[in-house]
Amino acid sequence: MPIERTLVILKPDAVQRGLVGEIISRFEKAGLKIVAMKMIKATPEQIEKFYPSSEEWYRSAGSKLLKAYQELGIDPRSKIGTDDPVLVGKKIKESLVKYMTSGPIVILVLKGNRAVEVVRKLVGPTSPHIAPPGTIRGDYSCDSPDLAAEEDRVVYNLVHASDSVAEAEREIRFWFREDEILD
Ligand code: CDP
Ligand code: MG
């Protein structure tokens, strides 16, 4: 079935910068339907559990920062003390908890044709500095992993979006009861 549901979170920087309406309207204009929405201040425990703690996730997150360093010709060991992607990923997860609990967030479930893939396309790649114009991350930020690491924080990239149909269903169940989601 191509009709899917996906989870989007407007992160604390999106809320602080007053971009909630602007960002949500992009999803609506693309034809996706909002079927659930709430604003909360997440706890560290919630964020810790929401993002995976698998070696696979650590490796993937760590590799993104190591790639940014490699492109700049910077030795990650001199900046963050290690070049092991899994260890780097664990540090990123700790900073991510700080970021995601630093202010209120808005959590939405969007529904529509190939919603998971379409939302990822509208959001753009993880690092705003390479996110193309027209994407949310590309249009509203120019942050990058190396600058973020320099300032001992994660990349401020405004939006979270599920990256697969299976993850989307897990993430939706994490934040919403089934009776809070409309059809
Ligand atoms: O959000 P997305 O799916 O694009 O990326 P992710 O790999 O699932 O990482 C989750 C979040 O951690 C990102 O959106 C960034 O805020 C942060 N992150 C980072 O700051 N630096 C990295 N090298 C990887 C992730
Ligand atoms: Mg992700």
Automatic annotation (TrEMBL):
EC number(s) from the headed UniProt entry: 2.7.4.6
Alphabetized UniProt keyword annotations: ATP-binding, Kinase, Nucleotide-binding, Phosphoprotein, Transferase
Keyword Disulfide bond: no
Gene Ontology MF terms: ATP binding; nucleoside diphosphate kinase activity
Source organism (scientific name): Pyrobaculum islandicum (strain DSM 4184 / JCM 9189 / GEO3)
Residue span(s) of domain Nucleoside diphosphate kinase-like: 3-183
Catalyzed reactions: a 2'-deoxyribonucleoside 5'-diphosphate + ATP = a 2'-deoxyribonucleoside 5'-triphosphate + ADP
Protein name: Nucleoside diphosphate kinase
Taxonomic placement: Archaea, Thermoproteota, Thermoprotei, Thermoproteales, Thermoproteaceae
